[in-house]
Amino acid sequence: MPTVSVTVARDVTEAIKVPRALFLPWPMGHHFGVPFQRDLQRRVVLAALGMLETSDEPGTILDLPIKWADVRREAKTLTEQGRKL
Amino acid sequence: MTAADKTIMSAVDPRDAGTQLRPGLWQTINERYPGSMIRKESFVPQARLAKPLAASRLTLVSSCGVHLKSDQHLDVCHPFGDFRFMRVPSRAKHDDLIIHQLKYPHDDADLDINVIFPIERLQELCQEGRLGGLTPNFFSFIGYSMDPEKFERTVAAGIAEAVVREERADCALLAPA
Predict the structure, then answer these.
(1) Which of A81, B44, B73, B176 is the most exposed place for a label (fewest CB within 10 A)?
(2) Residues of chain A found within 8 Å of residue B52, distances taken between Cβ atoms
(3) Interface pTM, i.e. ipTM
């Protein structure tokens, strides 16, 4: 069965040799972003699912180059807008 | 701190560099929990989708330790780990769920479960027709274990059996916490 893994630990993912993975440079426990950022969560999910259709090489790790500093900056903006966070 | 120091620190800060935020995690885990990690020497053959995503049934598997609030809680204190896995109805919402895991920070996931277990995002994609369907249940467990061979025989094999024979999934999204 085709599987795709979402990881924040590239070295662990390389060591355990998963078939395909999407790497995010984010903290543990935040694989899909931060609370209430539906667009970002959706973007990660779609990028991972897209690998099910495009990745052919075992061990492929795709980077989603969104810096954590940018993610937190957007989360702070949500807080300032009065969103629950 | 001089301006030059700040420049150097900024250049290597993984939050700005876009590199792994906690480098050397594989080595750290093996030093602190020797023998706890499953090791593979080679890749399994790459499985491919038999049909488009829009016609495929997806399941979600995560070591984040989430389950229904009404379920008996996972054991976060056992020194060797909890060798059970939980079925999470794929129609569940954030308010139905709770996390029992100690090995990663889940403060933000407690506010919005989709941070680590994107169940509501997958429900939306299914409603939009981007996915053909979701399995009736998703799966979760506690990733910490000091007996990887027993873990493979019990948790991993049990989930694989359920995903294929009971849930009849076509593909799986894995979210290792």
Answers:
(1) A81
(2) 53
(3) 0.91
Tokens 């959706």 sit on residue? A42
Examine residue B22 and state whether it is found in any structural domain, yes or no.
no
* In-domain check, residue B90: yes
> Could you tell me the residue range of the domain that residue B96 belongs to?
56-175
A32·B45 Cβ contact <8 A = no
User: Residue B174: closest CA among chain A residues belongs to which residue?
Assistant: A5
C-alpha distances out from residue B53 to A31, A79, B117, Å: 22, 35, 19
Residue A75 φ/ψ, nearest 5 degrees? -65, -40
Q: Please state the φ and ψ torsions of residue B171, each to the nearest 5 degrees.
A: -160, 165
pLDDT tens-digit map of B94-129 = 999 999 887 788 889 999 999 999 999 999 999 999
Interchain contact, B115 vs A30, CB within 8 Å: yes
Contacts of B95 (CB under 8 A, 6+ apart): none
Domain count, chain B: 1
Provide the token pair at B114.
Answer: 């989709």
Q: Is residue B10 part of a domain?
A: no
CB spacing of B111 vs A41 below 8 angstroms: no
**Is position B36 within any domain?**
no
Q: Is B122 left (phi over 0), alpha (psi -120 to 50) or beta?
A: alpha
Q: How far apart, in whole angstroms, are the C-alpha atoms of residue B27 and residue B24?
A: 5
* B35: pLDDT strictly greater than 50: yes
Mapped onto helix, strand or coil, the DSSP state of residue B126 is helix
C-alpha distance from B70 to closest chain A C-alpha (Å): 23
Q: Which amino acid is at B99?
A: I
Q: Is A34 helix (H, G, I), strand (E, B) or coil?
A: coil
